[in-house]
Amino acid sequence: MKTLVKVEWQRLWKRKVPWLLLAIIPVIVYVSAVFCQKQNQAFTPDVPQYTVAGNFPVLGLSEMLMTAFNLVAMIIAVMTVTEEYRSGSLRMVLIRTKSFQQLMLAKFFVLVGFLFLYLLIYFLVCYGIGFWMFSTPDTYPQFYHQDPVTLLEGLLYNIQFYGLAFLTLIAISSVIFFVSVISHTMTTALGISMGYLLVSFAYPNVIQLFQPLVGNEMTFKIFFTSIPMIQWEGITMVLAETPRFSGWMMLVLISYFVLFQILLLLVTRKKDIFI
């Protein structure tokens, strides 16, 4: 299995798309920094929304996590699975592979590995551009924390934030990867994946209209069954001084991962269905 993962990892980097996705990270971070600089004009330094070097890695990721990063996961999944159906290269790989399930598992590990690398590089670039473009006060306010945090405390918070962001990407990748496996064309895979993301953005906002009927707690629980909403607001609530709905959100992420891994195992039992 290790050899198969290694081979798939090497095959990934023979493509131009992963290199291009990595190359645009500084551009994405710079655009986020410029946006944060404009936002600072509307805030004072005593609010968590005010961007400084210490919190830019989080503020620079928060908007991109549920958009750009989910799209990166979708591109890599579709490229490494569905695109190989169209090109016919999947047949050649299966000749050297013991089972279709092992191949798909290896490809999923490669997808997760790429997302981890992408987050790590994004984190480092955010700190570099953050110290270049923003002020570096000794302490600054943090979301859902009463007392300001130091740069070291902020670093630990940022690492935890990126760790939870990585968990959300694993969960949403399970969904997208399953869609890529059952889709025989790139158009179908991209269409279903985009549809899933759009629905995940839409229904949490709709449920808030019924908050007086279902109650605050149930509204929040339904709201946080959406992975993009966990990425948008949930992570900061989990890392709050007094965490809220952290157990529920972890259960949601685990449920997504387990459910779609089971579905993946079921549909890949017979590889001749897919070639």
Automatic annotation (TrEMBL):
Domain of life according to the entry: Bacteria
Keywords: Membrane, Transmembrane, Transmembrane helix
Residues annotated as transmembrane: 60-82, 103-134, 159-182, 189-210, 245-267
Pfam families on file: ABC2_membrane_4 (PF12730)
Name of the protein this chain belongs to: ABC transporter permease
Species of the source: Lederbergia ruris
Taxonomic placement: Bacteria, Bacillati, Bacillota, Bacilli, Bacillales
